[in-house]
Amino acid sequence: MNTVIEARGLEKRFGRIRALDGLDLAVNAGEVHGFLGPNGAGKSTTIRVLLGLARTSGGSATVFGQDPWKDATTLHQRIAYVPGDVSLWPNLSGGEAIDLLSRLRGGTDNKAAYAARKARLIEAFQLDPSKKGRSYSKGNRQKVALVAAFASPADAYILDEPTSGLDPLMEGVFNQEIRRAASEGGTVLLSSHILSEVEQLCDRVSIIRAGKTVESGTLAELRHLTRTEVSFARNGLTEADLSRIPTIHDLALVNGRAQFTVDSDNVSPVLRALTDLDVKGLRVAPPSLEELFLRHYGDEILPAEASSAELPGRKARRRAASKVAGAR
Amino acid sequence: MSTVVTLFLQRLRRDRLQMLIWIVGIGLLVEFSVSAVKQSYGDVAGRQNILELAVANPSILMLRGTPEGSGLDQFIFFDIFTFIAVLVGLMSTFLAVRHSRAEEESGRAELLAATPAGRTLPTVVTVAYGAVANLVVGLVVALAFVAGGLDVAGSFVAGSATAAVGLSFLAFGLFAAQLMRTSRGANGVAAAAVMAAYAVRGIGDALGTPSADHLHTTVAWWSWISPIGWAQQTLAYDKNTLTPLLLSLAFTAVLLVLVFSLQSQRDSGASLLAGRPGRMDARGSLSSSTSLAWRLQWPTVVGWCAGSAFAGILTGTLAHAVAGAADADPNMEKIMASLIPGGKGSLVQLFISAIFVMVGILAAACATQVIIRMRQEEVAGTAEQVLATPVSRNRWLTGYLAVGAASIILVLLSGAITSSVSALAVGDASARIGDSFAAAAAQLPAALVYLTVLALVFVALPGWTIGLSWTLLGLGTVFGLFGGLVGMPDWLRDLSPFTHSPVPVGTSTDWSGGIWMLCIAVAVGAVAVASMRRRELNSA
Q: CATH top-level class for A227-286?
């Protein structure tokens, strides 16, 4: 299979801070790839390296087989990008910003097709393109960037937490557009810390933490990492009955229900035992990525670590500024 | 009550440095002006000469005000009061908008309005805070005059007049904040009102009727519709009457009533005049990073061009008067010659060159803002979106350099054209046209040096761009322009590009300094563009 984005042992240091510390990433052609990690894990830094906006301190990265730093302009003809923290020109309207970015990407050569796509997207995202950049809310700024990204077809879409400001309805529109882009043959790298959107959209995911890749694969491949949760009505079953169920973990009796977890690749013998016990009100929940995430970070990550690895740039200062403003 | 105190202290806390700079700056300006006037016009005869010249020349009256007596104190009031009034006016409008519309626009006002402070109390506190700030400024101005040895009673009248101007424009700033949707719009309207008040009283002063001894003027009605005009009519150090300030207070009161009635009617964040909607689609011309740079920058360029046009009009209209004055006062020629290094030529040419040095500084300042805009784009993250398209870093930078060079040329042209036209309009010889364009061209190299050197700063030390830009411009201006007057050593003066600008006076002009600077500007620009290839985007 054709690899569109490949990073090997990517390193990026900002002074003493290691934002990326040996990150690996492989995105195949035509797939929607989830790029997961908590805040400050290095997602945005990786994306900036892949766009040639930042240079690596070590390791290698290629996009379409080319060096993103050296061949930035040729690569950018094929890439659409949505930044995580969209800022717009205060005195340009949203419509102007969309046209400008699309023209810069060279995506407006076929004027009629571009106008139709733009009109359709503005309608779908319910965007008012006549407002000035300064008066958009965060979600609407994001919509402007999304419309600009989708308004002309690209070979690769690099989207940095693109739905963090969108309401659920708009997330639905976004999902549709991603599927459309993928069906047109586009490759999508979608960074997020919202697991549900990744779960719905992505063929494969890479999970990073503190600048390193900790897991990578299809969702099915990663599910072995978590346990399936099983619960049913207790209905007078004794502890002894329950203890006959094989290979279960964390057995608990809560509100008249028995619940436990089981390794996801080991569900069948458990189900057989449950049939023998003739349980009622059975619920078997597949592991969500939430749990997968919790297992990777929940018990180990410290708050200080999360913030120290944050890119020492705009995002961090914005956050600090908004805290100050909030305190007033 | 404790809410009021909290809000008041919050304003003070937020503005402490800014207000300190305004107030101390205005105080020092008064102090320096007093000693400068004392030095240049120490004797009554000299002052009377100047005043007669002034009364005969409407453009001086328009710029300065009307003379009211030839005493030193009165002369100083005539010389600087309108400038102080403009400064205090701007200080007050910025203060008003900063604590009203800017807060609403950013959404911070909403945070406060949701507390028991409500929608109106913060504005009440802003009025109180602005009033206190203006009283302090008035006091500082009065004390600075007293410290300069001026009459105490007159100084306090001048201080009160200053505070009254500030109060009027504090109220106007708050009114503009009710009208406009954005802080940028409100600041624009309010600052324009300050300039209009200055201009209107200028017309009234220029159209005034001089007394028989040419030492007093009865101003025309125009001066009586301007808050700055009212303050002038206190006639500090002469009649010392505070009555005209009642007009200022009434003006303030009426505007405040309007402000509070508008504010109590409208939603938080809304405005009397709705914001103009933008375009649905971009014009066809907005299709490159360079056209974007121009789109972002042209309003600023227009502002600097207006400043330069103002200087040009002065040059054109005054050159004639200067020629006349030179015959009357041989001292003038010496003063002019000291302003221009190595200047030997006709007094009028020297005068034109002297003013065009200022125009050159305006052009350099305009170029400085282009570089600062580029840095702001980088910090805001909008540059990132442009650079994520097929626009290379060096092409992006080159676009800004092109816009910078175009801005410089426009500012210089604006000065040269207005100077020529206004010289022709007052019936001066058409030879002034050549002098004006030569003087403007002479300023081009120094401004270009600023443009490319600051671009190199942007590439090499991005985090320093904004601070260093204004510092370098300020130092260059001080070393180059005033270095000769205060006897700075030559090597220090030589650091400033402005020192090396050619002076096109007389028959043989030495253009070598300009040619060297052009070479330097091109070389530095090339280095900046080449180095940009290797630089990461840096928003920190």
A: alpha beta
Which residue bears the tokens 């690769």?
A156
Whether the pTM exceeds 0.90: the reply is no
- Candidates B385, B397, B533, B537, partner chain A, best to mutate (most A CBs within 10 A): B385
Q: Which strands, in side-by-side order, build the sheet including A204-209? A: A79-82, A156-160, A187-192, A32-36, A204-209, A212-218
Please tell me if residue B278 touches chain A, with a CB cutoff of 8 Å: yes
Q: Decide if A104 and B286 are in contact by the 8 Å CB cutoff.
A: no
Confidence class for position B324, pLDDT limits 50, 70, 90? low
Q: Where are the domains of chain A?
A: 3-222, 227-286
Q: Which residue has the tokens 């803002």?
A: B369
Tell me yes or no: is domain A3-222 CATH 3.40.50.300.
Answer: yes
Question: Distance (Å) from the C-alpha of residue B517 to the closest C-alpha of chain A?
Answer: 33
pLDDT recorded at residue A290: 66
Higher pLDDT, B507 or A42: A42
Q: Is A328 on the interface with B (CB under 8 A)?
A: yes
Tell me which residues of chain A, numbers 1 to 60, contact chain B at a CB-CB cutoff of 8 Å: 48, 51, 53-55
Closest by CA to A32, choosing from A196, A200, A202, is A202
Q: What is the DSSP letter of A93?
A: B
Give per-residue pLDDT as tens, B115-169: 888 888 999 999 999 999 999 999 999 999 999 999 999 999 999 999 999 999 9
**Average pLDDT score over residue span B363-383:** 93
**Do B539 and A96 make contact, defined as CB atoms within 8 angstroms?**
no
In this predicted structure, the answer to whether residue B329 has a pLDDT above a threshold of 80 is no
Count Cβ–Cβ pairs < 8 Å, chain A vs chain B.
124
* The pair of three-digit structure tokens given for residue B23, joined into one six-digit string: 């107030």
**Could you state, in order of their start, the residue ranges of all structural domains in chain B?**
2-265, 298-532
Q: Do A328 and B379 touch (CB under 8 A)?
A: no
* Confidence band of A328 (pLDDT split at 50, 70, 90): very low
Cβ neighbourhood burial of B314 (10 Å; 0-12, 13-18, 19+): buried
Mapping DSSP to helix (H, G, I), strand (E, B) and coil, where does residue A8 land? strand
Portion 294-313 of A in contact with B at CB < 8 A: 312-313
At residue B351 the predicted structure's pLDDT band, cuts being 50, 70 and 90, is: confident
Flag whether residue A66 sits within 8 Å of chain B, measured between CB atoms: no
Residue A198 CB contacts under 8 Å (≥ 6 apart), including other chains:
A34, A36, A190, A192, A205, A289
Please state, in angstroms and rounded to a whole number, the distance separating the CA atoms of residues B360 and B480.
Answer: 12
Whether B345 has a pLDDT exceeding 50, the answer reads yes
Q: Is B108 exposed, middle or buried (0-12, 13-18, 19+ CB in 10 A)?
A: middle
In this model, does residue A222 exceed pLDDT 90?
Answer: no
Enumerate residues 6+ apart whose C-beta is below 8 A from B143.
B27, B155, B159
Residue A51 has pLDDT above 90, yes or no: yes
Nearest chain A CA: its distance from B341 CA (Å):
43
- Stretch 71-110 of chain A: residues touching chain B, C-beta under 8 Å: 72-74, 76-77, 79, 81, 83, 85-101, 103-106
Q: Do B286 and A103 touch (CB under 8 A)?
A: yes
